[in-house]
Fold these 2 entries.
Entry 1:
Amino acid sequence: MSSVRIRRIGLPGRIAAITLCVTATGLVHVNSSSAHASPKITEEAWGSTAEGQVDRYTLTNGKGMRVRILTYGGILQTIEVPDRRGRLANVTLGFDNLTDYVERSPYFGCITGRYANRIANGQFTLNGDPYTLPINNPPNSLHGGTIGFDKHIWTAAPFTRGSEVGLVMTFTSPDGDQGYPGTLNTQVTYTLTRDNGIRMDYKATTDKPTVVNLTNHAYFNLAGEGTGTIDDHLLTLNASRYTPVDPTLIPTGAIDPVAGTPMDFTKPTAIGARNRVNFEQLVIGRGYDHNWVLDRRDNTFRKLEFAARVLEKGSGRVLSIYTTEPGIQFYAGNFLDGTLIGTSGRMYRQGDGFALETQHYPDSPNQPQFPSTVLNPGQTYQTTTIYQFSTGR
Ligand code: BGC
């Protein structure tokens, strides 16, 4: 029997070797170390804020996919995934330093809370009691207020479970934090799966009636962050309706069909194909910045269902999103303006990344016809979303 050792044949990451064994009978046994590489999680200090030390965790799975997570804001700092030839690229927008995250981040990769997206005029009433929130996106309150969940240091507990690695992140928001009632105990579990998925399990409990709407705000560019616009990415949304907005980006209360409009992504369509057409909703948002109503079979919002798929043809990278949530905010990076320098040292301009934020609809606390975001003592808020990476055509 002869044995030939071949070094690295176009496989991703830290894969050392493939051994081909040719036996006397002519059979070839392929022994790839990639198939058996174990998942790994490492931790390092990554600076500090007024609240304390920030740590950065690096999670790697058996296929070489690598994700970096900061305890500051629970931020997904980098997400390195293979293209169709196995070459890794970082597909999420972000920074290479903590100061930029603290001082100028447009919510790159963070956990967004207590309430993702906008609440009109920073006001809502619950059980007859009025609540006032910070107006940080005039005239509205955006993403939980001035000091939302993205601006706190979370506690992280790493775990390894079979071929998966992950981090359980926790944060307790005190009663009255940013104007919201109730002490909110929040837990977000990030799991890097063996098949290149990032699973996010959100949980929260409260000691007073409150409203909650948590999401992750990662921006993606599947060709690699900093490589230019996402105009040619093909987007599919499992949504035949969306919630149109007023000029301040608050839902009008209507739920409109997408059919016959540039909001129709029920079939794979390039993001840039219609984002400059003179359609009132696009003019208001300076492009896509809307909540789509997912076509769900399960309306108890407990089952994971397909929400979105994005394909970047050049690399073959695909992002598929599954969620228990009723809505998804598709934001096409309209407010990126060339003033931010990203992780790889290149500037981000308008449309250089997109966000697909699974969520309950914006402004639900003021729109009783929308699925409820109320959480009462004794209940557990529980949602799950998966960012699944693969390659395709
Ligand atoms: C909002 C946008 C906002 C962006 C960054 C998105 O969720 O819908 O209007 O500019 O987040 O804050």
Entry 2:
Amino acid sequence: MRIGIACFPTYGGSGIVATELAHLLSKKHELHLISYDRPVRLGEETEFTFHKVELLSYPLFDRVPCCYSLALISKLCDVITSHNLDIVHAHYAVPNATSAYLAKKICNDAVKTVTTLHGTDSYLVGSHPSYKAVTQFSMQNSDALTAVSEYLRTRTLQDFSITRDIEVIPNFVDPQRFRRLDRNREEKILCHSSNFRPIKRIPDIIHAFNIISKETNSRLLFIGDGPERPKVEKMVADLGLSARVDFLGYVQDVEEVVGMSDLFFLPSEDESFGLAALEAMSCEVPVIATKVGGLKEIVSHGIDGYLAEVGDVKAIAQFALEIVTDSSRQREFGRNARQKVLKKYAPDKIRARYEKLYEKTLYTSTVQ
Ligand code: GMT
């Protein structure tokens, strides 16, 4: 098959999943990745072509973000015709699914479109009155529609008037890359990785760590960056924790930090999937998450991690202490986590599901 994948290039899970999927699919198919910048996990050399969406700089457009969706449509048309694409797979509905739909129409239905919903493109951005009608239309009129968790599927069907089903194809992680590294040291390493947005509830991690660090020799590592970082750094300083907390910013080889950690926190208010948690689990790192959304589908409470109520800092601290002060429990949870990743979230299994979906979409008359 000749496949075009459109995604965001930034440090979000949807861009990571799209890029990793492009790597996997390009072993068997002709693959074209389309975005406005090189995605973070793309690397310097790839087995497929990266097409950069060029944005016209024009004074009238300074405050009009829609110019990206239009430029993406034109780039998609270009790639569809010059490479005779069969499938355009849009990751993140806003605006990628809309651009894919319009490109298909401009190209006289020469391709089939597949849209993968990642979370906030459905229940936050996509549901906002500014985008809802167009997101709904684009979901309904994509030839195939997938969601990364059962939670996201159900929520999307509830929130949008669409009369079609959504197939759940979960995210995946490379177990060769994300694996356990040496943890032979006195100090326990606790870790969190995100885009530092309020939905991640990073202050809960700090408050929990304030309790944990009084009981055990531990260090907290933050990977990533985003709007909440200045506030979080101030909190750490105000609580006198600066010597025990490191802000690493964006890390290219994230597995080298996560792999040597003893525990991973993801206490989000909402999370459609939680790719960062899955990467930790692949590294045999137990996860403490919240009982919300897709996290409940990934983490099994008391088996490979713990699930706390949103904002229950005391429970988060208690669960963390149970893990870091009991090395046999830590090892058992870590082994269980990796087993689950190998069984349910292995790259080849998920690649095969997308291939099957592409084939079904190509050879049946779609749009329900
Ligand atoms: O809105 C975000 O958090 C960014 C978005 C993205 O583009 O990565 O994250 C969503 O997609 C990820 C990949 O499928 C999921 O792992 C995240 O759970 C999801 N974020 C939320 O639902 C908050």
